[in-house]
Amino acid sequence: MLKLKGLKFIPYIMLNFPNIHLNIAGVVGVGKSSLCNILAKQDFYIFHEPVANNELLAKFYADKQRYSLASQLYFLNKRFEMYQQTDQKNKSIIDRSILEDALFAKMLNISGQLSDIEYKIYQEVFQNYIQHIKKPDLMVYLKIKPENAIQRIKMRGRDYELSQDPQYWYDLNNTYEQYFSTYQLTNLLTIQVDELDFVHNSEHQAKVLHLIASACQVERSHQTIGTIEQSPLASLRQIIDKAG
Description:
The protein is of the alpha/beta class. It has one domain (21-243): Rossmann fold (3-Layer(aba) Sandwich). Helix content is 49%, strand content 11%. It has ten helices and seven strands. The chain has helices spanning 32-40, 55-62, 64-85, 98-110, 116-130, 146-156, 159-162, 166-181, 202-216, 238-243, and strands at 21-25, 45-47, 92-95, 138-143, 188-192, 224-225, 228-229. α3 (64-85) runs antiparallel to α4. The radius of gyration is 18 Å and the shape is globular. The N and C termini lie far apart (36 Å).
């Protein structure tokens, strides 16, 4: 468990976020949903990941061989619907990006739980979808060590997650690290959260909010400013090559 000592709590603050559309990315257990809920207090509309009361998700974790394609297409379709609705909101957040769906599909194919023909079907559907969605203005990647992510997964206690081989979470983390180390599709803000408790600690929460607010103000250009990594916008279709 993370030990955070000697930290001073400060009052919650409101920041001046522009009208912008964000994606919050990161491995399971990193705190994406918690961060989305915090940003909702800054007048962001949240598109929640469809995991609550999702019977298919539990079936997937119990039998990935059988339910991989169905679950991947389900999440892909739900995520596409979210992107289609972002124009109706001034400020929005999507909890887990559509780009990450392709990373999960890639892992399932490599492990043999998603056959080559099923993976080809998934990629074709994915390719059709991404031609009709608007890129987010900023991708926020919450970066964490796998052992800390596992600890947080244990703390929230979802049975279907607890039943997984710990190696799965290490492999997932490695897949994320490789992908976001060369990410060039939109502006990217990477936040290392191993020593941050932005849910319960107001000082940590303020730090994360200020990082995101600063990143929202930066023009899209080819430069690196602190933890804000930026590069020219590229077609979302490049994800197919990265996930292949």
